[in-house]
Amino acid sequence: MLLAYLLERKLEMSSLEGEIFLLLNLENNFPMATKSIMKVIDEQQWLDDAGEAIQPVIINAFKAGGETGNKIKNFLHGKWLGHALHPIVTDVPIGAWTTAAVLDSMELCGSEKYKTGADAAVNIGLAGAVGAAVTGITDWTGTSQAERKAGLAHAIINIGATALFLSSALLRKNESSRKTAITLSMLGYGLASFSAYIGGNLVYNQQMGVNHAASADGFPNEFTEVCSEDELPDNSMKCVQAGETKILLARKDNELFAIAHTCSHMGGPLSEGELLPDCQVRCPWHGSVFSLRDGSVVDGPATEPQPEFDVRTRDGKIEVKLKENSSSSYVPPAG
Ligand code: FES
Questions:
Q1: Residue 282's Cα: distance from chain center in Å?
Q2: Which of the listed residues 147, 286, 304, 306 should we mutate to test ligand 1's pocket, taking the one with most ligand atoms within 8 A of CB?
Q3: Which atom number of ligand 1 is nearest to the Cα of residue 267?
Q4: pLDDT tens digits for range 162-173
Q5: Which residues form the pocket of ligand 1, taking CB atoms under 6 Å from any ligand atom?
Q6: What is the tens place of the pLDDT at every residue in 26-59?
Q7: What element of type H or E holds 249?
Q8: Domain ranges in the chain?
Q9: 224-322: CATH homologous superfamily?
Q10: Residue 181 region, left (φ>0) first, then alpha (ψ -120 to 50), else beta?
Q11: Is the pTM here over 0.85, yes or no?
Q12: Separation of alpha carbons 270 and 264, rounded Å
């Protein structure tokens, strides 16, 4: 609607005046329009209800697979990669379908020789869409509230885009329906692009797939006192402050451990989670499990490790310092 209004106003003006009007207004109004899209999605109660019904089914399906199900889940999250797998896999359909759109456009302009390439690109995109769907659904099980709604909207629109490309792929086999097939591909590409916008918003605005532990700056590079020894009984955890940084301090079987307190997945408070046997901690928000020994991910949805700290006691006080060669990808600022 906004675009239609701006185009109508532009047509009332001279050419140069119109271009400048359109550019200025798009720059001013586009962020507002895109914010409205996310707001509309967030207001959809049915997305919340559907998410609440579907999410446990997928989580339970992984659980039903036992150890193998868990390994598959962690593989799809990207634990083995130390990075979310979904955004990497989505490059396949986006790239292939962009190629198809370019080659189809050339065909429509009269270059018949690009037909085979366009058809192959549509099919490669469809294969990639399967990978993007399974990795995306797996990541979606680790969302709640606004991200869960946006994630579900993203998935539904992607299903629509994939259905259009699938219909296009089938119709391409027949020369008489080739124009319809190309039209369906173009519509699918428009839908996929819109869905990619929602996916981008999930990352850049809602910070899904971002390492929340690494964004906490000011990790202590020198031993810093955080609490007295008697404040941390055996088999307990505590959130302590070292300068501006929150650290999870744990004592398990009389051994002291310290890792970053903010969960790398979506920022959950680890001290409110569960202290597990084998010196591990489970995040209270989406159940990621980290080793207290080195901050590594034992179980997703987290894929990035927690920064780890050296711990020592001095005169009844506990002190921590960022471990050299911490497994975190975070590099503290020099000085
Ligand atoms: S915030 Fe999601 S598992 Fe910790």
A1: 20
A2: 286
A3: 1
A4: 999 999 999 998
A5: 142, 263, 265-268, 283, 285-288, 301-302
A6: 556 666 666 688 889 999 999 999 999 999 999 9
A7: strand 245-252
A8: 44-204, 224-322
A9: Rieske [2Fe-2S] iron-sulphur domain (2.102.10.10)
A10: alpha
A11: no
A12: 10
